[in-house]
Automatic annotation (TrEMBL):
It comes from Maridesulfovibrio salexigens (strain ATCC 14822 / DSM 2638 / NCIMB 8403 / VKM B-1763) (Desulfovibrio salexigens). Keywords: Hydrolase. PANTHER family: DIMETHYLARGININASE, DIMETHYLARGININE DIMETHYLAMINOHYDROLASE. SUPFAM superfamilies: Pentein (SSF55909). Belongs to the DDAH family. This is Dimethylargininase. Gene3D superfamilies: L-arginine/glycine Amidinotransferase, Chain A. InterPro entries: DDAH-like. Transmembrane segments: none annotated.
């Protein structure tokens, strides 16, 4: 499903980033170890990983997914550069621009008052689902819709009330036809055509899994969800995400994939 990924080394300033988790500051030694494990998992899956250096000026910059949306088309890939709703993160887009310039055939950048963070964008087949919330606005979704249509993609807006950073905080893919999600998305019309696994109350963090095609990665430490996945025939690998969880980050947040 993916052959390439971009990640960014965690900044020592990570604990100064945006979070509402209330779980304390990350242990940076453990953070680096968890990030290295994440990278190693990608490599074992046969995915080529570009590791970008830390940017201390931007504490949240390890969550590289929010800065761009990759749009594969044929043997090439376009990149849609976002404008994060969190103003303190907007400079991260300039940092990623240079890093992806030689890995894409087209770069499209958000204009005007459009806002978007990649954590609000879920790709299923040839359809992008875009969360509309405090981080991504309707103007941003409209611009992205036009850009994605150039490459044969449909876009479905998914407005929701916040209470979580991004759409994919509580909604992600397990395979090409199954979604894992928190209960509040279970009856949404936008996802009526998919199989669904609803995580138990209190384990909503495990709604953010990472489907890589031949492999599935899930955060460890959520036994009820792990049992539910097993009963439904899913055999994910599990990885410790404790330090990134403290900063409202999940598995999908840590990479750009195409």
């Amino acid at each position: 499903m993916f052959s390439k990924a971009i990640v960014r080394t965690p900044a020592e300033s990570l604990g100064q980033g945006i979070t509402e988790a209330g779980l304390g500051c990350p242990d940076m030694e453990l953070t680096r170890a968890q990030h290295n494990n994440y990278i190693e998992y990608f490599k074992q899956a046969g995915i080529s990983v570009t590791v970008l250096p830390a940017v201390e000026e931007f504490p949240d910059s390890v969550f590289v997914e929010d800065t761009a949306v990759m749009i594969p088309h044929g043997n090439e890939t376009a990149a849609f550069l976002t404008c994060p709703g969190a103003e303190s993160r907007r400079g991260e887009v300039d940092e990623i621009d240079a890093a992806i310039a030689d890995q894409t055939d087209a770069i499209i950048r958000m204009q005007g008052d459009g806002l978007m963070e990649g954590g609000d964008v879920l790709l299923m087949g040839k359809t992008f689902y875009v969360g509309i919330d405090s981080r991504t606005n309707a103007l941003g979704c409209e611009q992205f819709t036009k850009a994605a249509a150039r490459f044969g993609y449909k876009t479905v807006p998914v407005p929701f009330d916040n209470g979580m950073p991004h759409l994919k905080t509580e909604l992600s893919a397990l395979d090409e036809e199954t979604l894992i999600m928190s209960a509040r998305f279970a009856e949404r019309e936008e996802f009526a055509g998919f199989k669904k696994i609803i995580v138990p109350e209190g384990e909503e963090y495990c709604s953010n899994c990472l489907y890589l095609g031949q492999k599935l990665l899930a955060p460890q430490g959520f036994p009820k969800t792990a049992e539910l996945l097993d009963k439904n025939g899913f055999k994910p690998d599990y990885i410790d995400m404790s330090e990134f969880r403290k900063m409202d980050g999940g598995l999908t947040c840590l990479s750009l994939r195409w």
